[in-house]
Amino acid sequence: FIARHLVKYLIDQKIATKIRVADKALPQTAYLSKEFLVYYQNKKLVEHKQANLSNPAHVKRAFKDDSGKYDWVINLAAETRIGQEENAYKQFVFNISVNCAKEAAAHGVEKYIEFSSARCYAPNKKPRKEGDKDKPWTTLAKYKKQAEDE
């Protein structure tokens, strides 16, 4: 969901010269509105790779590019549905985060940005800051935090 907004923003602001989206769902089956589908159909800027990023072989394929390395990688992928089995979060949160970070490092990516979860911090009525105490309070946050520590 967030990725489609990021793709739109990067194109509208003329920030990127190439965008590769790696997702297990094809754009045609990802419930993109017509507004967002137009951005994904911009073949000059946007390339889609279907990949299960919890699988290291798929991650390698997602990063492989004969035209050179990527300057930035922004990882938005994760299982975000509440109430899944713990193994789903390990596979689709921890494994995805670690696999993508390691592959980005192997490719010499200049900036790797991993989206995490505010639920990694102890609950509080006040807004949380980066240096606040860690205390994951959901299974998703537990595996996001473990990936950050990896």
Description:
The structure is a single chain. With 150 residues, the chain is α/β, with parallel strands linked by helices. 39% of the residues lie in helices and 12% in strands. The strands form two sheets. It has a two-stranded parallel sheet with strand order 1-2. The protein starts with a helix and ends with a helix.
Structure characteristics:
150 residues; alpha/beta; two-stranded parallel sheet; 5 helices; globular
What's this model, at a glance?
This protein has 150 residues and is of the alpha/beta class. The protein is built from 5 helices and 4 strands, in the order αβαβαβαβα.
What are the SSEs and their pairings?
Elements: H1 2-12, E1 19-23, H2 34-40, E2 46-50, H3 56-63, E3 72-75, H4 86-106, E4 111-114, H5 139-149
Parallel strand pairs: 1-2, 3-4
Beta percentage is 5-15%
Q: What is the helical fraction, as a range of percent?
A: 25-40%
Our measurement of the CA-to-CA distance between the termini, rounded to an integer number of angstroms, reads: 26 Å
Q: Given the structure, what is the number of helices? A: 5
What low-confidence regions span 5 or more consecutive residues with pLDDT below 50? Answer: none
Give the assembly state of these chains.
single chain
Given the C-alpha coordinates, what overall shape results? Answer: globular
Query: What Rg, in angstroms, do the CA atoms define?
Result: 16 Å
Structural class based on helices, strands and sheet pairing: alpha/beta
- What's the count of strands? 4
Mean pLDDT: 85
Largest sheet: 2 strands, parallel
Order of helices and strands: HEHEHEHEH
Please give the order of strands in the largest beta sheet.
1-2
